[in-house]
Amino acid sequence: MALRSYAIIDSPAPLVAALRDESWQVIAPVERNGSLVLAPIRSANDLPRGRVDQASPGNVRIEEGRPERWFDYTLPASGWKRWLYPPRRQLWQATRVRDAFDLETPLPDPENVAFMGLRPCDLAAIERLDAVLGPEGAADTEYMRRRRHMLSVVVQCARAVETCFCAGMGTGPRAEHGFDLALTELETGLLVEAGSQRGVGILERLPSREAREKDIEEARAISQKTARMQRRSLPPSAAQNIAQAPDHPEWDRLAARCLACGNCTLVCPTCFCTDVEDTTDLSGKHAERWQVWDSCFATAFSFLHEGPVRTSVRSRYRHWLTHKLATWYDQFGTSGCVGCGRCIAWCPVGIDLTAAAEAIAQPASPKPASKGG
């Protein structure tokens, strides 16, 4: 049986303080330049309290909300992936010593990092990355080392923006497992739910009052209401439809709009593709190898021998969407999409992957017959 313990706290301030007292680096959403980004915080005062985000295809904005509300915003611009799987990290460095090279593999000690304000869809995204980069996947030991030093403080969603569709993906708006602590913002305080023994230990050290059954029921009602707010969803047979329709004319319509900028892969919390860069100094005595994030929208991503395999925007968009929604199932047994909607919100031309999947699910219109003999 899953471990469960509940309590009510008045604000997240004592929780942030308790985590910092135990030497956790607390990473949370903060507002910068009109966007929500992830950054280390020193106290709960750094949180964007009283702010709400609004998102629609190709548009994200931050607005004033109720000043007493701590967590009425939803998602930061990018996910938490960069703290577990950095955009750039050194794999090794080599220095010439006489007639040989001294090879060094840097293995920095990971910090204890507490993700504060993690949303259920992003928690699901981390679980997707575990399948790819964990012991049963590509075995990225650096990723697993960081993962073991992670503590998750989830915030159960009390509102949804226009681009959210986690309910249809089964990844939100409520997390039922996989977290250390989960917060639901009620009118009378924050309901804290401990989902691990480590979470129970932290909860026991907070000034709190007993949670009533009424509080727990109210929290679940909030999650149900948030799920009903969502209007987007993927068609039930999206994976099969996309995999079996490589020549559907919708790909041409999507390619005509797509800028191949890679924004969708940058903000996606599950995209994991990387490239390797080798550098040397001018003397030839020192060399380094770096792993860097890459995007399948880049022309050079599919470069083999004398040129790229996917030269057109059409082929690159089709590859991304087919892998994300279809062939990911073949590789990892689940979808590569968690319904966070970031790719819709941050696309400069407002391409909606749920609308694209719906269009591809429809039979292609027959081409008009040519006139004449």
UniProtKB/TrEMBL annotation:
Provide the protein name: 4Fe-4S dicluster domain-containing protein
In what residue span(s) does the 4Fe-4S ferredoxin-type domain sit? Answer: 247-279, 328-356
Which UniProt key words apply to this protein?
Iron, Iron-sulfur, Metal-binding
Taxonomic superkingdom: Bacteria
Q: Which InterPro entries match?
A: 4Fe4S_Fe-S-bd (IPR017896), 4Fe4S_Fe_S_CS (IPR017900), Helical_ferredxn (IPR009051)
Residue numbers spanned by region Disordered: 224-245
Q: Which organism is it from?
A: Tropicimonas aquimaris
| PANTHER family (UniProt xref) | ANAEROBIC SULFITE REDUCTASE SUBUNIT A
Q: Does the keyword DNA repair apply?
A: no
